[in-house]
Automatic annotation (TrEMBL):
<dbReference type="GO" id="GO:0007156">
    <property type="term" value="P:homophilic cell adhesion via plasma membrane adhesion molecules"/>
</dbReference>
<keyword id="KW-0812">Transmembrane</keyword>
<feature type="domain" description="Cadherin">
    <location>
        <begin position="118"/>
        <end position="229"/>
    </location>
</feature>
<keyword id="KW-0472">Membrane</keyword>
<dbReference type="GO" id="GO:0016020">
    <property type="term" value="C:membrane"/>
</dbReference>
<dbReference type="InterPro" id="IPR002126">
    <property type="entry name" value="Cadherin-like_dom"/>
</dbReference>
<keyword id="KW-0106">Calcium</keyword>
<feature type="signal peptide">
    <location>
        <begin position="1"/>
        <end position="23"/>
    </location>
</feature>
<dbReference type="InterPro" id="IPR015919">
    <property type="entry name" value="Cadherin-like_sf"/>
</dbReference>
<protein>
    <submittedName>
        <fullName>Neural-cadherin</fullName>
    </submittedName>
</protein>
<dbReference type="Pfam" id="PF00028">
    <property type="entry name" value="Cadherin"/>
</dbReference>
<keyword id="KW-0732">Signal</keyword>
<dbReference type="GO" id="GO:0005509">
    <property type="term" value="F:calcium ion binding"/>
</dbReference>
<keyword id="KW-1133">Transmembrane helix</keyword>
Length: 449
């Protein structure tokens, strides 16, 4: 238990418990009266300031709040130790508060409260994080500044280095008059940790003038592999038939029929998109699926295409081209087995190609109708052939946003591709192929059976 004797304005104390000290608190010389210095929080505690010398500058409220009461300019550059007595019904303890009053113009600060940078994964040791310049300064010259990482640097993955130097430093802190940078001490793996949050501290050489800076570092994914096709060469047979209604038995090819499908895989797990190396009037490829679609009439019995696969990594990579050989086979209907059904006459009508332009903002609201497919008769109904993540098609022909459109997720072609089946009550079906590149195109070849 502590014993206190008050004599001639001086307080003499003998404490049986050790005095509790605190870290140094720096106060600007121009803070106004009422500035909160520290708040002591205790249960049923009463606090008393024991230093008469500083009673005109500080006061301690009953709730434990230590605050200024006057201009601190007379205490400039002075180191103060304030003794605080804490009393409870059952015990007493003493606290020591260390203060330093400094000229605000000499107080260190960073130009921003926080920085955000990045570094590629697997970058070699000594690679600097891509960040704006790091430097703490004061309006008045305070001389060289010491920098160190005080938080978030588990396993010492990062270190500081003067901006003008190279190599890997051998010490944890850096003293510099100029800029400093953060470097990686070893290669980092984005799959292990995607980001790190560090706290840097700048200190003058006396160790009393300090400033902290929060830094977030993202480890960027490295696209290390290009897509690869499952086969180097693909062979597809495209079946046609002879038109018996013509005297010369002209070959007939089902436009927009499915020729075949190519497939590529990516070792990094990126999504893969497809394209023709050279655009062709004979066939098109669906970027998201790799399906090859017959778009025109062949000029001969054989054709050759080259297809590419692209990934969505950063930087994006593309595959070596794969060869696609097409053989156009014509069947004579006389040679085909007869089917026990009534022969129906086949006619073809081709609608004109349409082009509709859209922006990314048009697809921001899920469920929003972006356009309506045109009907030739009131009996036509529409249905999307394959599930599509971006759009849905109502039976009435209304195309709606299914998922908010994201330009970055659309792949290198920046398209939304899907097939729509149109049925006419009592008749057959027809297909519409839609492709969006911030634009939507569609072609349709109608068959009425």
């Amino acid at each position: 238990m502590a014993r206190f004797v008050l004599a001639s304005g001086a307080l003499l104390c003998v404490l049986s418990a050790a005095m509790q000290t605190s870290a140094l608190t720096v106060l600007p010389h121009d803070v106004r009266p009422g500035h909160a210095v520290r708040h002591f929080e205790g249960n049923y505690s009463r606090y008393t300031l024991l230093d008469p010398e500083y009673a005109s500058y500080f006061t301690l409220l009953d709730d434990g709040l230590l605050m200024t009461t006057a201009d601190l300019a007379p205490l400039l550059d002075q180191s103060l130790n304030l003794a605080i007595l804490e009393q409870t019904p059952f015990s007493s303890s003493a606290h020591s508060v260390h203060l330093l009053v400094v000229d605000r113009r000499k107080m260190l600060s960073f130009a921003t409260n926080g920085l955000h940078g990045e570094i590629p994964e697997n970058a070699p040791a000594g690679t600097a994080v891509d960040l704006p310049p790091i430097k703490a300064a004061a309006p008045l010259n305070v001389g060289p500044v010491a920098y160190k990482i005080i938080k978030g640097n588990e396993n010492s993955l990062f270190a500081l280095r003067e901006k003008t130097k190279t190599g890997i430093p051998g010490v944890a802190s850096v003293i510099s008059d100029g800029d400093v940078e953060i470097i990686a001490m070893r290669p980092l793996d984005a799959e292990d940790t995607k980001s790190y949050d560090l706290t840097l501290q700048a200190t003058d050489l006396r160790g009393s003038n300090k400033a902290n800076l929060a830094v977030r570092i993202d480890v960027t994914y490295e696209n290390g592999h290009e897509p690869n096709f499952e086969q180097d060469i693909y062979y597809f047979a495209v079946n046609g038939s002879l038109d018996q209604n013509c005297d010369n038995e002209t070959a007939h090819w089902q436009r927009f029929s499915n020729i075949g499908k190519v497939h590529a895989y990516d070792a990094d797990g990126d999504r893969v998109y497809y394209s023709l190396k050279t655009p062709s009037n004979l066939a098109v490829i669906v970027p998201q699926t790799g399906e090859l679609i017959l778009a025109g009439e062949p000029d001969g019995h054989e054709a050759e295409l080259e297809v590419l696969a692209h990934d969505t990594g950063s930087p994006p990579r593309k595959s070596r081209p794969a060869q696609v050989f097409l053989e156009f086979v014509v069947h004579n209907k006389k040679d085909l087995p007869a089917l026990r059904r009534q022969k129906r006459r086949v006619t073809r009508a081709v609608r004109p190609t349409k082009r509709i332009e859209f922006t990314e903002a048009d697809g921001e609201v899920e469920g929003r109708a972006v356009f309506t497919l045109e009907k030739e008769t009131d009996r036509e109904t529409f249905k999307i052939r394959d599930e599509n993540p971006w759009v849905t098609v109502e039976p009435s022909g209304v195309v709606k946003v299914k998922k908010k459109w994201d330009y970055e997720e659309l792949g290198p072609e920046k398209t939304i591709d899907f097939w729509v089946t149109i049925t006419n009550a009592g008749n057959g079906g027809k297909f519409i192929y839609l492709s969006s590149e911030k634009k939507i195109y569609y072609w349709d070849d109608v068959q009425t059976l």
